[in-house]
Write a structure and sequence with these properties.
- This protein is of the alpha/beta class.
- The protein folds into two domains: 122 residues, Response regulator (Rossmann fold, 3-Layer(aba) Sandwich); 93 residues, Arc Repressor Mutant, subunit A (Orthogonal Bundle).
- It is built from eight helices and eleven strands.
- It has a five-stranded parallel sheet with strand order 2-1-3-4-5, sandwiched between helices. The chain has a three-stranded antiparallel sheet with strand order 6-7-8, covered by helices on one side. It has a three-stranded antiparallel sheet with strand order 9-11-10.
- Helix 6 crosses helix 7.
- The longest helix has 21 residues.
- It is elongated.
- Bound molecules: calcium ion.
- Calcium ion binds next to loops.
- The site of calcium ion (CA) has 5 residues, from loops.
Length: 233
């Protein structure tokens, strides 16, 4: 198991490296999140331990960037910021767990094992959503249309998953905001419109299945037709 550790405090980094190493984990450490991001391009660790207050790119920014296209790699935040608001924010933005500093190494190891175990259980489920020739691999977070794989952002993917789960259901913009964005309350319905627009574009002809109901919202129409009035292939 490869653990990516992002922590700018040298002493803490060494202690974590040493104790996880003794438990049989392989640890690759970074003093800042910028270098860690570059390393991610070359391969994914099994888990990320992420400090929040870092020089340069902040921990939360790193988390946001990671979660844009990777919902799978588990992240445990380790931070001196320990207010309830900080913890909730990190969890809602995609962290799997949060360990306020200072913490005991045994607790850290236990949390790592629990998160990895949970991850393993989820991977076993193997869930794929499909409809109208669009396929969503919920684990790999990938969309496929025939032989092509449109690159969707996290929110576009969630929107599409929602549509495919409930074809022909009318969603108002407010409902979509709640279901897909939820906690980011500063957003408004224009956010929904903008994401639906980019999602449609990325889906090509299949984007026609997303029907706009003026002043109401959107729905996924499985019976939508193409410009020539024929079934969409
Ligand atoms: Ca720090």
């Amino acid at each position: 198991m490869l653990i990516m550790l992002i922590e700018d405090e040298g002493a803490l980094r060494e202690v974590i490296e040493y104790s996880l190493g003794r438990e049989g984990f392989q640890v690759i450490s970074f003093e800042n999140a910028n270098d860690a991001l570059i390393a991610l391009d070359e391969g994914r660790p099994d888990l990320v331990l992420l400090d929040l207050m870092l020089p340069g790119l902040q921990g939360m920014q790193f988390l946001d960037i990671l979660r844009q296209n990777d919902r799978k790699t588990p992240v445990i935040v380790i931070s001196a910021r320990n207010s309830e608001a900080d913890i909730i924010k990190a969890l809602e933005r995609g962290a799997d767990d949060y360990l306020p500093k200072p913490f005991g190494l045994k607790l850290l190891e236990t949390k790592i094992r629990v998160v990895l175990r949970r991850q393993g259980e989820q991977l076993g489920e193997g869930s794929v959503l499909s409809g109208c020739g669009v396929k969503l691999d919920l684990e790999a977070h990938k969309a496929a249309i025939g032989g092509t794989e449109p690159q969707l952002t996290l929110k576009e993917f969630d929107l599409l998953a929602l549509f495919l789960r409930r074809p022909e259901k009318v969603f108002t913009r407010d409902q979509l905001l709640n279901l897909v964005w939820g906690y980011e309350s500063e957003l408004n319905s224009r956010t929904v419109d903008a994401h639906v627009a980019t999602l449609r574009k990325k889906l090509g002809d299949k984007g026609r299945h997303i029907k706009t109901l003026p002043k109401i919202g959107y729905l996924w129409d499985p019976k939508a037709l193409d410009e020539q009035g024929e079934e969409i292939r």
